[in-house]
Specification:
The structure is a homotrimer. Helix content of chain A is 27%, strand content 38%. Chain A is α+β, with helices and mostly antiparallel strands. Chain A has one domain: Sandwich (Jelly Rolls). In chain A, the strands form 2 sheets. The first copy, chain A, has a 5-stranded antiparallel β-sheet, with helices on one face. A 3-stranded antiparallel β-sheet of chain A has the order 2-7-4, sandwiched between helices. Chain A starts with a strand and ends with a strand. Chains in contact: A-B, A-C, B-C. At the A-B interface, α3 and β8 of A face β4, α2 and β5 of B.
């Protein structure tokens, strides 16, 4: 079943840890072995998996993306968020995590982040659990 | 079942909207709840999800990728398309979209694009629909 | 069933071809039609699909990523591997490949690579085969 998670972001660019909410959805699905798709139905936000322990890792990811794709670069799209669209495509709109013994098989340091690039906004994240 | 979509690209770099064709394959699969894998079996093309309404978004994505990975950069691969290989890895070779009520659960502004980086060429896109 | 592949990397940055091992896991799963998820449970390594024939393609991918996200850039994370975290998010922590007739539906030139960005290390790759 397709579940929807609601996330309110607070900055223009931000990585929001949604691991616990996704884990809850996997648990309530009662799927023991399978895969979990985390999907962002937006075009100026994405999703990524990276280190959850040190918040500096999140900061580095966002700052380096900003160096590579600056907000005030030369773009044609007139809404002032062309960089956000490009960053969303670089990270991607989904991540997949294997499920084993009814839990996400994340590595020790891994967390799942909604990647906001044009906030603050109300965002949705779709979670589809497949398996048996 | 694995379906094949044939796409003829017309430029060296181009984002081709394939949403309608993928949606048709989902419909004909009669899967009501599940996931749809869109897979590009090439190494100088990729696939991405982004805004379909304003063609300037596509243009901005391609132009910024060209600034980050210029065609005439310093590369070892001798076929003149090293940049295309690198761009393909940055976007990725697949996207996944949840299926609900027999339809792709795309966001309002989302479209699925074949990302051509070494065209014009005849490309294949594989579509695998999973679920029940 | 979730399978684990062990890979020893030998350099700080390296693309290790794991196609044959993943193909073996697909074969032993006896799944004829479905999808194969290749998942890296690390935050300074990723996974990508690209050309396997010419090793220069791998070299170009790694060198261009190093130009875009240099090891000695301006970062906050203090472990000396901030660049590796960022590169991992750019490539992503998983790839998916369709399975048809019991085999990975890779394109002629495609290979699956573990992308090491903070080696040498012992890495794990999780492989989940879904289908019937």
């Amino acid at each position: 079943m397709l579940h929807t998670l609601h996330v309110s972001t607070r900055s223009r660019a931000e990585l929001v840890d949604i691991t616990a909410q996704v884990q809850d959805m996997v648990r309530s699905s009662e799927v023991s072995e399978g895969i979990c798709l985390v999907y962002v139905p937006h075009t100026t936000a994405g999703v990524t998996i990276n280190e959850g322990a040190d918040p500096d890792v999140r900061r580095d990811i966002l700052e380096q993306l900003e160096r590579l794709v600056p907000k005030d670069g030369r773009y044609h799209h007139l809404e002032g968020n062309a960089d956000a669209h490009i960053k969303a495509s670089l990270l991607g709109s989904s991540v997949l995590v294997p499920i084993s013994d009814g839990r996400l098989s994340l590595g020790t340091w891994q967390a799942i982040f909604l990647a906001e690039f044009d906030g603050p906004r109300s965002r949705k994240v779709l979670v589809q659990v497949m398996g048996g």
